[in-house]
Amino acid sequence: MTSPLRVGLSVTTAEPLLTAGRLDGLGVYSRALLDHLPGAGVEVQPLSFPPHGDARKVQLGRALPLSFPLATLGDLILPRSVHLSTQVALARGNPGAAPLDLFHATDYRIVRMDCPVVATLHDALPISHPEWASPKLRKLKNWLQAKAARKAQHVITGSRFSIRELVEHFGVDENNISVVHHGAAPQFFEPPPVAERDITLEQHGLRAGYFLFVGTLQPRKNVERLLAAYLALPPVLRAARQLVIVGQPGWRSEELVSRIKDARQRGENVVWLDQLTDERHLRHLYAGAGAFIFPSLHEGFGLPLVEAFAAGVPVACSGTTSLPEVANGAALEFDPLSVDDITAAMTTLARDDAARARCIAAGQRRALELTWDEAARRTVAVYQAVLSH
User: Fold this and answer.
1) Cα–Cα distance between 86 and 184 in angstroms, integer?
2) Predicted model pTM
3) What band does 73 get if pLDDT is binned at 50, 70 and 90?
4) Res. 20 pLDDT band, cuts 50 70 90
5) Nearest-angstrom CA–CA distance, 307 and 285
6) What is the phi/psi pair of residue 246, to 5°?
7) How would you classify the pairing of strands 117-120 and 154-157?
8) Contacts of the segment 79-86: beta carbons below 8 A, 24+ positions apart
9) pLDDT beyond 60 at 85
10) Region of poorest pLDDT, from 162-176, 203-217, 319-333
11) DSSP of 275-338, one letter per residue?
C-alpha cells in the first residue's frame, strides 16, 4: 500500500487574522483545496507565512519559519543551496516528520523550496490591464507573479483563457501549465429552507425575484454599466424587481458608490450590501434571486457564475475573457461594453419564462461539472504528473 502524497498547501490568503472572515477569490480557492484535497487521497499540511513573522498569529495552519518579505529577501541573497522548506518540518511541529513531497502555492507567495513547487496563478491582470490594478501594488504584484512563474515546476490556472495571458505576459512555457476549473461549494447545490431564506431577505429589505450581482466594487467588474442598464429598464419592471449589489467597495469605487447612493436617494429599487460576511446569508441571497447578472470585463475564472448555476438561478454574463468557457453555453451572454445589451439580457430573464427555464436547467447541469471535489481530483493529477517527471 503506497503512502499518500504529503503536500504543503499555502493558506495565507485564508488566514482569519488577514481576512477578517471575508475571503476573496484567492482565499476561497485556498480554503476549498484545504477542505477537499484529503478526499482525493492527499495528506495536506496547511502552511502560512506569519504576519510580521509572528507565528502565534497563524490560526488556520502551521506558521512557516519566516514572514514572506524575509523569506523573499533570503531567496535573493542566500546561496541557492539554502531552501525555506528545510525548516518546514519545524513548522509542522515535528522535526522528525517525513519531508513534503510537494508544495502548492495558491497565490504569488513562492520562495525557494527543496521539493517540487506547483503554483496557481489566476491571471496576469496587473500587466495585461494595468488600468484595472492599483498603482500602489501593480509593480510589486507584477514582480512577485513573474518570480512565482519562474520558480514553480508547474503552474495551475483556472481557464484556457488564462493560459494565453500567462504565456504572453509571464513567459510561462505552455507545456508547464494545466487548467483546473474551480468549483461551487457543496452548500450551493442544496436549496435552503424557504423560511430561513425569507428571514434573511427580510433582514436586508429584499423581495424574492431581484437581479443579483456578487463581487468587489472595482473598475473591471463593470458595475457602473450594470447600474445604468438597470435604470434603463421600464419603470414597471424596476418596481417589480430590485437590483441587489453584494460586495465591498474596492479600488477606484468612489464614483460608483456615489451613483448607487444617488439612485437610492431618488427612490430607485437598488440595494447595496457591502458588509455581508455570513456564507449562509449569501446562499440565501442566491436562492432568492430571480436572475444573476455578471457584467465583468475580465475574469480568470468567475466563481460567482458557478455559484449561481448551482443555486438554480438563471444567469446572464459577459461574453468575454474566461466567462464563455466557464458558462459553456449555460448563460445568456451579452456585450459588457453595451448598456443596451445588458438591459436586453435583464429584460429577457425577467420576462421570457422559456429562456429562464433553459438557463436554469443548463446552469444546473454545468454546475455538476464544476465542483470542488472534481477540482481536487484534477489538482492531485497535476501533482502526480509533476512528481513522475
Assistant:
1) 35
2) 0.93
3) confident
4) low
5) 11
6) -110, 115
7) parallel
8) 80/112, 82/112, 83/112, 83/113, 83/114, 84/111, 84/112, 84/113, 85/8, 85/113, 85/114, 85/115, 86/114
9) no
10) 162-176
11) ----HHHHHHHHHHEEEEEE--S--SS-HHHHHHHHTT--EEEESSTTHHHHHTT-SEEE-TT-
- The residues pairing with 155 across neighbouring beta strands, listed in sequence order, are 119, 177
Q: Grid cell 488566514 — which residue?
A: 15
Helix (H/G/I), strand (E/B), else coil: 236? helix
* Contact indicator for 74, 111 with CB cutoff of 8 Å: yes
CB of 227 closer than 8 Å to CB of 263: yes
**Per-residue pLDDT for 88 more than 60?**
no
Q: Which residues of 337-370 are buried (b: 16+ CB within 10 A; e: fewer)?
A: eebebbbbbbbbbbeeeebbeebbebbbebbeeb
Residue 20 to residue 103: CA distance in whole angstroms: 26
Cα–Cα distance between 341 and 240 in angstroms, integer? 21
Per the model's pLDDT, the better-predicted residue between 169 and 37 turns out to be 37
* Residue 92's pLDDT band (cuts 50, 70, 90): very low
Q: Which domains does the chain have, with CATH numbers?
A: 5-183+372-388 (3.40.50.2000), 187-369 (3.40.50.2000)
Q: What cell does 345 get? A: 439580457
- Which DSSP category does 266 fall into? T
132-134-138 Cα angle (round to 5): 95
Residue 345: is its pLDDT beyond 50?
yes
User: Which helix H or strand E contains 348, and what residues bound it?
Assistant: helix 339-351
